[in-house]
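Deliverable D5.2: sample structural annotation.
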Amino acid sequence: MFIYSSLSIHIQRLNLQKNKGKSLISFALKALFANKLKTILIYLSLIFSIISIFLISSISNGIITMYSSMLKSDGDIIITQANISDTFFSNVNIDLIEKINKIQNVLESSALIVGASPVEKLPIVAVYGASSNRFKNYKLESGTYAQKNEVIVGKSIYEQLSNKKEIQIANRTFKISGVFKSEIGFENGGVVLTIGDAGEIFNKSASMIMVNTTLNSDVERIIKDIKALDEQLDAKSTQNFVDNYNQFKIIKTSSNVISFIAFSMGLLGIVSLMSITINQRKSEFGIKRALGISTSKIVYSIMTESFILGLTSFISAFVISHIVLFSIKNISSLQGYVNGEISNELAFYIFITSIFMAIFGSIIPALNAAKTDPVELIQGNKI
């Protein structure tokens, strides 16, 4: 046994000298291909975790971005009923628009009712009641803007309707007067009617009032003047409203929690699989230690393998996530409500997370292997 081990060490020493000029990456690749099954398992574990984080984060960000874009297109200030948990429950007197428009530096105010209703075979469809001056936000592809007892419908909804002439909302039948297209999924998958008709359906005056102000006006002063009109009003700048909207906070928190769970599961999987892989390579590490290779170099070589795994897993997950998001975006039954996009900021964050997950998951097994007595490793004792 001793003679065999000495001979193996001598051969390894000769190979080490022969391959001295080879890069650390080539050795890492060789080690990964030498343990194909374990490499594939770690690779799949990483991909699953990274794709989960990609999809959860991008879809939640997409929902927030869509709704934010819809609100930001309507003005600088958003007025809702005070002390309500969501805009669906808000009820603001639309007659206040006349008073609001008289406030200094206010250009125009519009009103919106936000609701939802089943339409034909679709279980839930966004329904908007818009004041007449807000209809210009909807770019018609055909027909005319809605009058009383009429609606305009988003293109993605229109394509799914069996009856292209009429639509039923809350037991009321409305004529389809026009079809519009919007880049915002919640609008393109929605129905818009006059605010009077919507008020009768949802039993309210308006969910919110949006206010446009003059350039460089004192928004905070205008907000103060609006609140003075009625103590039941809550007015915020559009950006402040978006930043503090309860539903957005819930979506972000849920997304972060689920992403953390996916990250933790991926990390635990990598630690387990790396421990098994390194344990099977204990003789290799023992010979390297006997040849005088330092602990730090062994750890560094294992971390290089992990870096390669993390990088390739990220690239694969990035491509797959794009394909999945594109497919989801084009599923007609989702009506455009689920629309995730991977921003450069999100991609960079997940790239760092992927590399960290791969390297950190290998550190403990690598240190354990590197610090173990070479004789024990060569003899095949457990790490």
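Annotation notes: The radius of gyration is 31 Å. Residues 1-14, 16-22 have pLDDT under 50 and may be disordered.
The annotation will be released with the project's public dataset once the embargo ends.
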